């Protein structure tokens, strides 16, 4: 009975409370104030929903801002790790390969390193193949290539004796490939002298004009900048190509002119790109008597140095080993004759037989697969002759101590890693002056677009060199760069958060 009375009392109290809430139309609930009660006792649902939607939009906006900030910080952190790994991964190997640096030598190397995150670090180090060839088992591969060259020479002698009855080696193809060589030398001298005089003079005049008023600075910057771009496009871009095309230079001579043309364009851009910010910093701070202008000797050394990144000073070796220089130049000559015999014994007979047949799918497939072996041999010979022997020879003559012209590309497991390690000299230029400058202009956004732009520039330049040298357009390298290279690099950057 008592429990039944208590339950009846509680139900009456609830009814009274409900009546009190409905009989006071002006009464508002206490608390957060989000629920408004109308005169008929209904809750304004629309008001509550709108409040919740506003809070949700604010939370989503805050989430997006936090994610963007976090992603930017992660990218900056990964970029800094890449900068530090440049010096860590290439430190001198201990014991059997090279002696460690002393504290005094390490302190000297600090003068050749730019501020953190602002450019390439140059340190004293040997080329990877020079270190690997000190191992007898690795040097065996070098001896195997020499034995294969001897077999090519013997094969050519035997075939010429059986077919034509003579034992004299004929180099008609080699003579044709390097035809009109005096014109090539004159063209190179004109290009080199113009690069030595025009960019340095324009930069010197522009830096002197920065001590005037702000309006004069902007006027002279626009004037000298336009003159430099006009020289790059017309003096180095159009005129050498015009000489090559109008005189119908043979393939090897075309390669010399076009490769030097591209190299000098990249050198001039690096010189201006590295020194203009220093003058602008002086213009802003006005510290000292005037802007620091590089000496002509520094610029001249850079034009011959085996690097595309300008520095006022580089790590230098104490002396030149002329025996080492002679060995590398002889190896370049040997690779040249090696390539000649590859074409004579493996390529020309195949192409001659294909040209006599009706072109169809079968003939094309046979031609492609029969060209794979000589193509790989020519690729390896080109790498060894230029990136190892030629650059090391010039580095030794100039006492240039940083010999990391390539990395262990033969251990690459992805196209992105292969393109970063195959040619470090060109990769550094693309990374610092194309990729990073693209991010600087876009305020570190559009990283996939920056990587795609890098591969586009590289592919276009490669196809330009091949098209001008061979006289026809066959975009195999362009497809390889744009399909496999850019796709692999963008996917790599998406998973790791780093760029090309």
From TrEMBL:
Residues 15-39 are annotated as: Disordered. Belongs to the membrane-bound acyltransferase family. Sterol o-acyltransferase subfamily. It catalyses: (7Z)-octadecenoyl-CoA + cholesterol = cholesteryl (7Z)-octadecenoate + CoA; (11Z)-octadecenoyl-CoA + cholesterol = cholesteryl (11Z)-octadecenoate + CoA; octadecanoyl-CoA + cholesterol = cholesteryl octadecanoate + CoA; cholesterol + hexadecanoyl-CoA = cholesteryl hexadecanoate + CoA. It comes from Xenotaenia resolanae. Keywords: Acyltransferase, Disulfide bond, Endoplasmic reticulum, Membrane, Phosphoprotein, Transferase, Transmembrane, Transmembrane helix. This is O-acyltransferase. The chain crosses the membrane at residues 141-162, 174-198, 219-243, 322-343, 363-387, 446-466, 472-495. The keyword DNA repair does not apply. It comes from the Eukaryota. It is found in: Endoplasmic reticulum membrane. The lineage of its organism: Eukaryota, Metazoa, Chordata, Craniata, Vertebrata. The keyword Acyltransferase applies. Its main location: endoplasmic reticulum. It is a multi-pass membrane protein.
């Amino acid at each position: 009975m008592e429990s039944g009375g208590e339950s009846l009392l509680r139900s009456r109290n609830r009814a009274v409370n409900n009546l009190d809430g409905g009989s006071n139309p002006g009464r508002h609930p206490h608390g957060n104030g989000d629920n408004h009660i109308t005169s008929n006792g209904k809750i304004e649902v629309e008001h509550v929903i709108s409040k919740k939607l506003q809070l949700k939009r604010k939370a989503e906006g805050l989430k997006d801002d936090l994610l963007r900030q976090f992603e930017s910080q992660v990218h900056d952190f990964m970029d800094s790790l890449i900068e530090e790994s440049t010096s860590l991964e290439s430190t001198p190997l201990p014991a059997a390969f090279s002696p460690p640096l002393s504290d005094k030598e390490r302190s000297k190397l600090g003068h050749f390193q730019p501020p953190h995150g602002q450019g390439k670090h140059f340190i004293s180090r040997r080329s990877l193949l020079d270190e690997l060839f000190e191992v007898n088992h690795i040097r065996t591969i070098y001896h195997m290539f020499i034995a294969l060259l001897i077999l090519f020479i013997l094969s050519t002698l035997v075939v010429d004796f059986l077919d034509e009855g003579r034992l004299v080696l004929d180099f008609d193809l080699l003579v044709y490939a390097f035809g009109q060589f005096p014109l090539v030398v004159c063209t190179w001298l004109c290009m080199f002298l113009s690069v030595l005089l025009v960019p340095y003079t324009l930069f010197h005049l522009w830096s002197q004009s920065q001590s005037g008023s702000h309006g004069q600075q902007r006027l002279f910057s626009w004037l000298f900048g336009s003159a430099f771009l006009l020289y790059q496009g017309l003096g180095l871009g159009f005129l050498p190509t015009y000489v090559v095309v109008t005189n119908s230079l043979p393939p090897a001579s075309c390669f010399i002119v076009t490769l030097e043309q591209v190299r000098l364009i990249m050198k001039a851009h690096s010189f201006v790109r590295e020194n203009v910010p220093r003058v602008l910093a002086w213009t802003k701070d006005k510290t000292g008597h005037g802007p620091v202008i590089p000496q002509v000797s520094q610029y001249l050394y850079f034009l011959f140095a085996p690097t595309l990144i300008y520095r006022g000073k580089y790590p230098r070796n104490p002396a030149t080993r002329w025996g080492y220089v002679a060995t590398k130049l002889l190896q370049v000559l040997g690779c040249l004759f090696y390539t000649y015999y590859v074409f004579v014994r493996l390529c020309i007979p195949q192409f001659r037989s294909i040209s006599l047949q009706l072109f169809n799918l079968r003939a094309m497939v046979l031609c492609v697969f029969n060209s794979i072996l000589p193509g790989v041999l020519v690729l390896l010979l080109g790498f060894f002759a230029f990136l190892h022997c030629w650059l090391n020879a010039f580095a030794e003559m100039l006492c240039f101590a940083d010999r990391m012209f390539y990395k262990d590309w033969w251990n690459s497991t992805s196209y992105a890693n292969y393109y970063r390690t195959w040619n470090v000299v060109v990769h550094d230029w693309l990374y610092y002056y194309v990729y990073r400058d693209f991010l600087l202009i876009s305020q570190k956004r559009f990283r996939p677009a920056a990587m795609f732009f890098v591969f586009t520039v590289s592919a276009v330049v490669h196809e330009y060199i091949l098209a001008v040298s061979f006289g026809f357009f066959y975009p195999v390298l362009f497809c390889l760069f744009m399909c496999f290279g850019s796709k692999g690099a963008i996917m790599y950057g998406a998973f790791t958060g780093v760029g090309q």
